[in-house]
Amino acid sequence: MLAGGGRDQRLERLVNTIMALHRRLSCGDAFLSDWGVALASLAIRFYVGWQFLKSGMVKVQDWSTTLDLFRYEYMVPLLPPELAAAMGTAGELALPLLLFIGLLTRPAALALCAVNVMAVVSYPQLFQFDCPAAVNDHFYWGALLLVVVAMGPGRVSLDAWLARRTAAVR
Fold this sequence. Notes:
Radius of gyration: 25 Å
Helix content: over 70%
Strand content: under 5%
Number of strands: 0
Structural class: mainly alpha
Shape: elongated
């Protein structure tokens, strides 16, 4: 009888030790969830936004070449090449700016994801290159944009500032 009781006490001490260790190790979870998500979202917003902003700036620098690309290389469905070029370039220039400042972050990330999908769909040659990095980049950017859509902009954004301000007024 005593032997069994000793095992129960050892098991109870082990469970208590594990629970105490868990409490100590998870004491910063709320802080990390709050600020970790905010900083991760900020990094993703800047990284992906910068890729698209660079692309939009290249298109604007030589508009006649951009129009030729949309006429003869990119096969955007349903839109005339001139309209597709203007819309794509406008998206690549405006949406990253919204991501950078964290304003309308989820809609901007979703819209930029649509621009990304359209870029892949309208340029099927991406799948024929020997270097898979060209198409893989678009998959990574799309996945990262969906992460921003799912987790939001975090604390480091105008969206969060506006939400706090709106809540304070109520």
